[in-house]
Amino acid sequence: MTLWGGRFGGEMSDVTREFTGDTSDRRLLVVDVEGSIAHVTMLGGTGIIESAEAETLLQGLRQILDEADSFVFEESDEDVHTAVERRLGELVGEVAGKLHTGRSRNDQVALDLRLYLRNAADERSHELRQWIETLVTLAEGTADVLVPTYTHLQQAQVTSFGNHLLAYAWMAARDIGRFSDCRHRLDESPLGAGASAGSTLPLDREMVAESLGMLGPIPNTLDAVGSRDFVAEYVFCCVQAMVHLSRLAEELILWASREFGWMMPGDAVSTGSSALPHKRNPDIAELVRGRAAGVVGDMQTILTLQKALPLSYNRDLQEDKRVVFHADDVLSRSLVAMSALLEGSGFTFPTPESETAALPLAETLVTRGVPFREAHHVVGRLVQRMEAAAKSLGDADYDDLRAIDERFETADLAALEMRAGSIDDQIAALRSMVGD
User: Does 189 participate in catalysis according to the annotation?
Assistant: First the structure.
């Protein structure tokens, strides 16, 4: 079944049907019906169709909603809109032909996408909150475990492993903020824009928007059906969240190596080698890192898809659904998998190199009025002295300090004792955010 064809005398070829068809929009079934319910309610309320006809259509549409989990698509259904109208005809008869009154698939699919992504943004935000909870729980248990921070992949300063994990929790918190901002811009209704320039029928676009819980109709009809910046923004939200997951995935891969020895993936979250009996591989992390590349590609695709389109609607835009659904699905699965990996792994931590206390030692001189650049140079010479003696900075005693600079005091040796700051305030703030 198609929603067009009156001006055609011949049949579409199988090649054309196969090439132009798209089954990816079938996941829009529920929101398509919800949008249709709002549209029919408006048609009946404005008298564009008779109230009895509107009620008949609404009853059929509600039945389709009830059937959503078992809805049967037919091979002849060109898209989800066609499938709904075909099934509605089976339920209520010829009056189903009035469903499309004052509407085009152009404004219909734009609405469907906005409704779908609005729901998806809420779901992803919920999953990100669960991800933050996973990180915070592990951080609480490792708040006193000292690890080195790294700059240029060289040990730099000392922090707690809990603090390291909370860095990713704050990234996830910003990801939630991005989805929230995006959701706000999704909350405009394109319905009533028609194919490109609206309808001569007295449609009440405000009524439809209000019934769908949206802020209002999109003012410009060409913009309503021809723009996909809202899709690009949603894909970016997914991309940035995946990049954050990929960065942690890379660290988990390093930590699981014998060279780092920080992490041991459990049996439930690791795989082995077909050739090497001793291997235990962090495949979840590797796949998250790899799939992030595909989502970055989705960002490129959705931007390139729009860059040369004249207004208003063009069939190129059919490809937007495949792109955004892929990015959204990958992020959702990756959040679940990464939580499982962290929760199913064991962690052990070697003592950081004592040189990570070099900055605190320099800052003891700063507290006595020594310019930082001079203090930096003094401690650098101390490190050099200890290396020449085949010792570490932690082996330094008072004589070593005084040999370099007489402004050092005995109490300054305490600066070489590695310690990390409290993360209690961060945990409280994140917990409050997760609970919102």
Answer: no
